């Protein structure tokens, strides 16, 4: 008899603290609709649904005519399903994880190494970098979804440095002037000016960051209360992030990275080395 190739799965769920709660979460709803045995706890966050055979979340097979209990076991006994190229390159393992995320509070900023760097890090410190492969990522919005992706054009950052003196204070006059002067230069000069600004920000003393952030929060709140629109400095988002992560330097990242709001069906691709952060909403993540 031919091997049965199509069968229902119950996918693993990750209850990370940043996920949406209970049945408000896209992840919980998908789990409930695919697995009749699943019980949703309303007081638990349902952050990620993993469709794949990852060792920390191997999907269960919901068909008792199949002898294997999980997708990982099934693949290891039916290696041809991967195709010869993938089977040989990835030692008979599925090199792909499809995730659905449901985000209530913002995640930290990340960038993933390219293949070359991933191999090097894995060789140097396999305990911290268990994977020698790169991890290109694509996010597709299932609901309205907000995220940060890649550096903004220099002109936009320069505008924020003018309109947000609290940010300029952290970056300093020299680095600010360097970035302003780089707008008409070649991209190499602009890139190094940008690098200098960003590292000034990231190396700021914690107490100075807290102080400048609280000045900014106060200013935005007062202006908003007086009926002034603060959207030109992403006022609402800044207040929201500061409420989630009071005093955190990451709040200032919105002035360096492109802010995207995806509509359902829209996607963003996150290449190696591109800084990104997911802020709010539900999306699905096929990742390599
Ligand atoms: Zn990522």
UniProtKB/TrEMBL annotation:
Gene Ontology CC, one term: cytosol
Cofactor: Zn(2+)
Keyword field: Isomerase, Metal-binding, Zinc
Coiled-coil zones: none
Domain Phosphomannose isomerase type I helical insertion: 170-257
Transmembrane segments: none
The protein's role, per its UniProt record: Isomerase that catalyzes the interconversion of fructose-6-P and mannose-6-P and has a critical role in the supply of D-mannose derivatives required for many eukaryotic glycosylation reactions.
Residue ranges occupied by any Phosphomannose isomerase type I catalytic domain in the UniProt entry: 6-154
Gene name of the record: MPI
CDD domains reported for this sequence: cupin_PMI_type_I_N
One protein family per Pfam: PMI_typeI_hel
Listed NCBIfam families: manA
Family: Belongs to the mannose-6-phosphate isomerase type 1 family.
GO MF annotation list: mannose-6-phosphate isomerase activity; zinc ion binding
PROSITE patterns in alphabetical order: PMI_I_1
Organism placement in taxonomy: Eukaryota, Metazoa, Chordata, Craniata, Vertebrata
Catalytic activity, EC: 5.3.1.8
Pathway: Nucleotide-sugar biosynthesis; GDP-alpha-D-mannose biosynthesis; alpha-D-mannose 1-phosphate from D-fructose 6-phosphate: step 1/2
Protein name, per record: Mannose-6-phosphate isomerase
GO biological process: carbohydrate metabolic process; GDP-mannose biosynthetic process
Reactions mediated catalytically: D-mannose 6-phosphate = D-fructose 6-phosphate
């Amino acid at each position: 008899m031919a091997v049965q190739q199509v069968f229902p799965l119950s996918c693993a769920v990750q209850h990370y603290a940043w996920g949406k709660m209970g049945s408000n979460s896209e992840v919980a709803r998908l789990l409930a609709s695919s697995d009749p045995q699943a019980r949703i706890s309303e007081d638990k966050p349902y952050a990620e649904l993993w469709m794949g055979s990852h060792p920390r979340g191997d999907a269960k097979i919901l068909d008792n005519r199949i002898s294997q209990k999980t997708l990982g076991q099934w693949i290891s006994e039916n290696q041809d399903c991967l195709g010869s190229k993938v089977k040989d390159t990835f030692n008979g393992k599925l090199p792909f994880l499809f995730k659905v995320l449901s985000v209530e509070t913002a995640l930290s900023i990340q960038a993933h190494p390219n293949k070359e760097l991933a191999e090097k890090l894995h060789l140097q410190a396999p305990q911290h970098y268990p994977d020698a492969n790169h991890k290109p990522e694509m996010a597709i919005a299932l609901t309205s979804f907000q995220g940060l992706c890649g550096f903004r054009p220099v002109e936009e950052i320069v505008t924020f440095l003018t309109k947000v003196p609290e940010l300029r204070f952290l970056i300093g006059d020299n680095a600010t002037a360097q970035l302003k002067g780089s707008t008409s230069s070649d991209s190499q000069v602009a890139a190094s000016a940008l690098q200098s600004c960003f590292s000034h920000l990231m190396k700021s003393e914690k107490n100075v960051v807290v102080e400048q952030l609280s000045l900014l929060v106060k200013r935005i709140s007062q202006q908003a209360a007086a009926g002034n629109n603060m959207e030109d400095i992403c006022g609402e988002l800044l207040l929201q992030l500061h409420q989630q992560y009071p005093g955190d330097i990451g709040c200032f990242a919105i002035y360096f990275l492109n802010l995207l709001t995806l509509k359902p069906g829209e996607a963003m691709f996150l290449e190696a080395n591109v800084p990104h952060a997911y802020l709010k909403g539900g999306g699905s993540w096929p990742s390599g």
